[in-house]
Amino acid sequence: MRQRLSSEPDRYRGRRRVPTPPRSRYAAVVTTAFVGAGVVALGAAGSLDDAKMVSPSTLAELERVSDEATTRANDAANSTSRGTEREPIQTSMAEEPDVWVLPLRAEDVDYRFTSPYGMRWGKLHAGIDLAAPEGVPYRAIHSGTVVKASWYGGYGYCVIVRHPDGTESVYGHSSKLLVKAGQQVKAGDALGLVGNTGHSFGSHLHLEVHVKGEPQDPIPWLRERDVDIKLQMDRIVGEVAAS
Q: Are 220 and 229 spatial neighbours (Cβ–Cβ below 8 Å)?
């Protein structure tokens, strides 16, 4: 090929080049162009008086080859597209599990442990008593459903919460109830206010824990769940003595 002299005008300057199709479509484009040219040529030959008839089997084979080439090109394009898509992010983040907490908060009141679980005056005292001023809020020790929030005989105004494992916690002698039966509560939600209703001598919270309908000593039972009422009481007493 003759080399262009610098004095000769550049015949291609200023002309726009036709963009090259993407690689994933290249095979389909080339195959389609080739088959299209063949069909055009066959059509042109058919318009001549002395043209020979095209074999139907040859035409069918030509179409089959074209379809296969197009399918392969499309599969390659789809594979490339899938490879560039970002897969959804997998997360192992789970909701923080619920906890067990004290029914009274030290920041709410300086309460006192006044009566343990066990026999008292010839009868079973089925819970523990925590003395606190009237009107102080007491809270759910665990999440669950309120199954009772009303007057309940010697318990006075009482709240009973059934927890997901079937355990029930009982809160007695309230001066006021802050929840209703059927309400869902979380650990730490206020259920009512400490009071002196029912068979009570002085303002306090009476707390019971029932497992399968049987009362349990709340102190060791809660201690197994990292809630130590007596240890909390000792800490409060120590802080008061040091002040």
A: no
Do the strands 118-120 and 137-139 form a parallel or antiparallel pair, or are they unpaired?
Answer: unpaired
Does the pTM surpass 0.85? The reply is no
Domain formed by 112-242, architecture: Distorted Sandwich (2.70)
Give the 3-state secondary structure of residue 209: strand
User: Cα 203–207–210 angle (5° rounding)?
Assistant: 160
Phi, psi of 193 (to 5 degrees): -115, 140
Find out whether 195 and 156 touch, Cβ atoms under 8 Å.
yes
DSSP state of 195: B
> Using CA atoms, how far apart are residues 80 and 170, in angstroms rounded to an integer?
64
Amino acid at 67: D
d(C-alpha 141, C-alpha 219), whole Å: 12
pLDDT in tens, 49-62: 443 444 555 555 55
DSSP H helical segments within the chain, as ranges?
23-46, 56-84, 218-223, 229-242
CA distances (Å), origin 107, targets 102, 104, 115, 232, 236 = 12, 9, 22, 12, 10
- pLDDT tens per residue across span 56-88: 555 555 566 556 656 666 666 555 545 444 444
Q: What is the DSSP track for 114-174?
A: EE-SEEETTEEE-SEEEE--TT-EEE-SS-EEEEEEEE-GGG-EEEEEE-TTS-EEEEEEE
Residue type, 196: N
